[in-house]
Amino acid sequence: MMQYGYQQYKTQSVETMTKGEMLILLYDEINKRLLRAGAYLEKEQLDLFEADIQRAIDIINYLAKSLDRKYPISAELYRLYDFMTVQLTRVKSGRNIKLAEEILPLVKELRESFKEADRITKKDPSVGDGIGSSTSSVTLGVG
CDD domains per the record (predicted)? Predict the structure, then answer.
């Protein structure tokens, strides 16, 4: 019974998030997965390492697919996401966490950029009109 209430709470909180909040959550998840993958690699838990790297790749692919291509910044973000995907594929196949550590600053910088864009659009909703509904040219297709 308690589990059902918690699941309902989680579902409701995700459904009420803005697109910017959802993006921040996705970047947080990428960051968490990369950090955790490093710990799993150190412990030689290779299945868990590969699963976390793959999940980070899946999230990045989702972000790339959700870009609204009518905005010029989308092309730049797509190239960045493509670079991150290639690097993480190399991390996974070579079990080289150093490459993932190079991506972490990019993830953090993107997170902070979208966090700021979300803050600005919440403060002044008209700002979002020219940059992709809620947050800097990314449409998640959620809700």
Answer: FliS
